[in-house]
Design brief:
Blueprint: E1 7-11, H1 16-26, E2 30-35, H2 39-51, E3 56-60, H3 66-80, E4 85-88, H4 103-130, E5 134-139, H5 142-146, H6 155-175, E6 180-187, H7 198-207, H8 216-228, E7 236-239
Parallel strand pairs: 1-2, 1-4, 2-3, 4-5, 5-6, 6-7
Amino acid sequence: MTLTNRVVLITGGKRIGQVVARELAVQGADVAVSYRGSKDEADATVAEVADLGRRSIALAADVGRASDCQALVDRVAAEFGRLDVLVNMASIYGATDFDAMTDGDWQRNIDVNLRSVFLCSRAAVPYMRRQGGGRIVNFADWLARSGRPAYKGFVAYYTAKAGVIALTEALALELARDQILVNAVAPGPILPPPDLGAAELEEVARATPVGRWGGAAEIAKAVRAVIESDFITGETIRVDGGRHVQ
């Protein structure tokens, strides 16, 4: 699929999402982004896309809610007249000790990191079918793709991201005859958290075979690659600088 004059919806429009939006706009796509609490960052993404001469909007949505997902997709299709690509990037991440984890901690991780992928995809598929195909790109995690949790404190997050991989494969099978290709990207050390100290930054770089953090542009390249491919579906691609081969 070429991206010229296509319409892309990205759930999550800040940090890596902003870079992905810019890359797809450079390739000729119009881009909608959703946000829950980061309106300023989403508006900045819209401004960047507009500066590139493409149409863009930012829409508020809690993608853990079915009604919000349906309304989000419907609004994008109404605004732009079509929907070609859905990039399920919305995610929450944070460590919680197992003994301290509440039902709410568990459910919020499942809702945002996994359930939203199903809900947004379900809403988007009818629009893609009407125009003869589309692309769904989900976001997993390199550890879940490698089949090992590795770090304590991420029970709900790891479980949700492992579910994203399973959902990606199942949707790829369900939707292949509709020419809707479904893949996932599994980031490794891409962007450090803002509060990470210098020693921790260096430790992660040393643990990565290529010897450095990846940068958001590497994720944008991977997203673009699976969108542009007409024959890759059901894959989860690690973008981790070789962490999984150690």
